[in-house]
């Protein structure tokens, strides 16, 4: 779907996957006015297909657009575009289990020009790819690196938007994590470098017995849809679920004294991933016994059962396509 100043959204089309040709002076290539989303379509037990909370993705896409001075795509159009692609690619929706069809809606400036200003032309596209189970051989805890040299987002910045530049800026920290033998980066706040924010592509949860806590939305972390869903699912299962503030010192101390029983990360791609060990320039510890925890695995199952249609959709989160 195209957007042009003065004309709005126009010329929606469904076309076979193919490369785009682009002018070298395309504004996105220079100034990164670009946003994206990620969501999954799951085969349901009766053979139909459904997406999980596409309205929430559509609304986050609008919030990202506002932050990046881009036009807001109406939520109905966002969902209609995803639905049309899934229907076209129905044969690519995997049959069962945790496998899904991953959808990547995105929008970028399609105008040509070298002046720095909001563009007047944009292109919204959705592409899809089958995604296997994130852990085909069983859930494996990840090791994390606490990034003290780099920050992902600052107050007033673009941290709460799903925009390409955030990810580009994070790559050097991801490489640093890998050089220390860690799978993922944990981002800390930009001012004191001690408040836990989120992971590279996932939000974090801290399990204190039957109370689970996730870092509050400070404006510099992405409001994850999985994070939001788990606040509700955890309460449904009888846990206390809340937003709070946790420092790296709290994490280390509460792990040592045994009150912090589990830590996990959550997001569309991995659903829920246990955190097994933590490293930084100054510290190195095993989270709990380093194995996937009971609460983590219970929440993982509850969320996947809902997404794959094995439990009732009590909150009206599933969007059936027939
Ligand atoms: N934080 C970041 C930086 C992300 O890229 C993602 C993935 N979209 C998340 C958190 C998790 O968000 P969601 O649960 O909506 O996938």
Q: Could you please describe the fold and organization of this structure?
A:
With 322 residues, this protein is of the alpha+beta class. It has 7 helices and 17 strands. The strands form 2 sheets. Strands 8, 9, 10, 11, 12, 13, 14, 15 and 16 form a 9-stranded mixed β-sheet that branches. Strands 1, 2, 3, 4, 5, 6, 7 and 17 form an 8-stranded antiparallel β-sheet that branches. α2 crosses α3 (75-88). It starts with a strand and ends with a strand. The model has no long low-confidence stretch (mean pLDDT 96). The chain binds 4'-deoxy-4'-aminopyridoxal-5'-phosphate.
Q: Given the C-alpha coordinates, what overall shape results?
A: globular
Helix content: 25-40%
Assigned CATH architecture of the largest domain: Alpha-Beta Barrel
Task: Provide the CATH superfamily of the largest domain.
Answer: D-amino Acid Aminotransferase, subunit A, domain 2
Distance between the termini: 24 Å
Total of domains: 2
Structural class: alpha+beta
Computed over alpha carbons, the radius of gyration is 20 Å
Sequence stretches where pLDDT stays below 50 over 5 or more residues: none
Secondary structure topology:
Elements: E1 2-4, E2 8-10, H1 27-31, E3 34-36, E4 39-43, E5 49-52, H2 54-67, H3 75-88, E6 100-109, E7 121-131, E8 142-147, H4 164-179, E9 184-188, E10 196-199, E11 203-208, E12 211-215, H5 225-236, E13 240-244, H6 248-256, E14 262-267, E15 271-279, E16 284-286, H7 294-307, E17 318-320
The structure holds 4'-deoxy-4'-aminopyridoxal-5'-phosphate.
